[in-house]
# Entry
Amino acid sequence: MRYGPNYIYKCPNCGNLLKKRSLSSGNTLGAEVFSDGKRIAPMLREFPNLTKCKKCGSFFWLSKLQEIGTYEWGQDENPLWENADEAEFLRIDEYFAAINTGIAENDKEELEIRQRIWWSFNDRLRDNRKIFIDEGDELNWRMNINELMKLIDQTDNNKIIVLAELNRNLGNFEKCISLIQSIDNEKFIWIKEKFLAECEQKHKYVIKLN
# Structure
């Protein structure tokens, strides 16, 4: 993994500076792939698109901003950028707050946020923690899954797998089985077998596929 340029942005609300790192190269060696579609690759780090200003609390998409400057690793940076906050992924409660501000202007953006919420809940299990803090947390998780399912079409096998996983998470095992069995591409046989085995055992939560 080799880092690329650092991009400097300005908060559109208060002007606070923040920076986003990037990669110039990476690979998927040692990557873990999970049933919710998330891939964790030590040598292919991810960086956020939706983030929050640490000064004023505003949410914004970095992809919709024009960077005000860049600098490479090892280069002398502009002194004004030295204390720029680093752009970070949001917490679960912050993703919900961002949705409530109306930041998702279309279904694609809402799907991106709700998928991040789903993955963030599952990250707790990946980190060997409890998935829910309290009953309200579980209700938010369930609501988000139901809203996420509305945003997913069935135009390809990968999306059918995501929809099947969401149904399995809710305990809708028969629906999960029906969706998985509708996939007739041989390259997905190994995934189908894993999903069917989890449904047979009435297992609801995220699993590692590889």
In short: Residues 107-126 form the longest helix (20 residues). The chain has two domains: 2-86, 92-200. The CA atoms of residues 14 and 99 lie 20 Å apart.
